[in-house]
Amino acid sequence: MTLKTLLTGATVALGVAAGAVTPAQAQDDKTKVGFIYVGPIGDGGWTYEHNEGRLAVEEHFGDKVETVYQESVPEGADATRAITQMALNGADLIFTTSFGYMDATVAVAEKFPDVKFEHATGYKTAPNVSTYSARFYEGRAIQGHIAGNMTKSNIVGYIASYPIPEVIRGINAAFIHARKANPEVEFKIIWAYTWFDPAKEADAATALIEQGADVILQHTDSTAPQAAAEKAGGVVTFGQASDMAEYKPFPRVSSIIDDWKPYYIARTQAVIDGTWESQQVWDGIGPGMVAIGEITDAVPAEVKEEALAMKDAITSGDYHPFTGPLKKQDGSDWLAEGETADDGTLLGMDFYVEGLDAEIPQ
Amino acid sequence: MMDLSSISPILLLASIMAASTPILLAAIGELVVERAGVLNLGVEGMMITGAICGFAFAVNTGSPALGFLAAALGGAALSLLFALLTQFALANQVASGLALTLFGLGLSALLGQGYVGIKPPPTTRLDIPVLSDIPFLGPVLFSHDAMVYIALALVAAVWAVLKYTRAGLILRAVGENHDAAHALGYKVVRVRVLAIAFGGGCAGLGGAYLSLVRVPQWTEGMTAGAGWIALALVVFASWKAGRVLLGAWLFGGVSVLQLNLQAAGVALPVEYLSMSPYLITILVLVIMSADRSRAPGSLTRIFHASQ
Prior knowledge:
heterodimer; A: Rossmann fold; six-stranded mixed sheet; 11 helices; 14 strands; 19% strand; B: ABC transporter involved in vitamin B12 uptake, BtuC
């Protein structure tokens, strides 16, 4: 029943889309910017920060821009429907904010050549599709350093979402720097196969804690692992995607914050000016797309100092988190002494570095 | 790094109980609703409403018990909206149920605005003297929070009432053939409204168990599909209370077990582990339902005394 309704809806939508001759945005001169979110705005993490970006666009442009959004859009077929709907309703620029919207974004973009699309964390572009992402791995390196120093059990738990390059990069960056700080450290990784499911995220954190982890890193979107760590007591966590400041100063000792505001404002401006062009943007701590949240006093002073020094070195470009000598997990050489990883390898990363005792799901 | 010894069976079993309880509560409520001949697809919406009602009351009063009570009332109140639509306005049950889910998700997001990032008062674990001290069995069976036992007692009560009491017989009669029940003088609509409210209350309790015990915090959309799993469980359990319990334990158990196996580095492909809760639960329940059990005869049919 639901499926049928859904399919009917999608078919109707596509039919209308194919027959649409009037360019979107003919009626009024307001620029309409749409956002597709993978979770609820209230997740306190990933989607929350994208929505902060949307609010910044509204504030910056005032009456000149109208924004629309849809929350909790599942990755897959339903995303096509949601994006199509938004384009049909006259959006001029649409941000699709999750990796799993990649094919849906490209497919819808083909039908709406006059609408501009921006897909987060993907790699497929088109004349009217840009991609943008942040170098979260720079923040992961700093987390790894703190994690390696703070674990007493030498077991760091990692709640991973999906086995895609972005997540694998984060695991590698954190592991390399945790091992550098503490050669005894081991990573236990759980693949949750979800971006947002508080109960499952909490269960995963609990499972890791029960098996000895006293530091939890997460690549899922909700604050549930923070709550689970707080309940267990004595477990260190880091804010993911957003500051998650409500768990300061402990268990949350620092965070990676995604700041999309300047980018969203700049791209909206480009559409207004008619200067929008397809591009691939991948910015890190330096340009300000990734920020490191306050490192609390629960972290020993010297560790905090080292972490901040690493942050400065990354900001200035003096240090790249993937600097050789580094080997792949199978023991083969990857980066020679002093060599840094190229973006192509990082964007398609499908291997663990040496020392990680786990397998990437295929 | 396969290291099964790092999994503590006692902690694992305790986690399984916590993981099973929300879907068990929601499913046993929905079972009663469906046995009365009504399909309420709004379980997800009633759960999330219960989650925020329970959370808000527990935070404001400092008492998890009052929180759970408020959750049951909140879930039941929302379900009465469904009852109004389907029993009095004679609206389509499937559409009304779906609408209830959407409404519940929106309503809970609105109610929960001031509650993000707040820590609820802890729900204490019962410490039953003597019994809790029995090695292994004590921690596994006798030291959970009260809701775990209440959920089990509810399942037992639903089973007994449906099987052995007059009230249960009337409820089943209404669900099997509402025209016959009406002809015998039973108040079909009244029985169904009560069943719907009971189902709403149970779903609310299940939601509150998520926000007060299992996670514990409030996050928008935090049920993340648990209500749909509870609905599926009722069907695969062939509308039998005992099998709902088995299904909930299987689903909750395998869910937690697979996370633990992943953390222990078991040499099984993660994607199989990840789908195992769904596969195993469906497989076991489908095999068990080979005994010609079927849905209540009047399920989803609209009743009006004039027909």
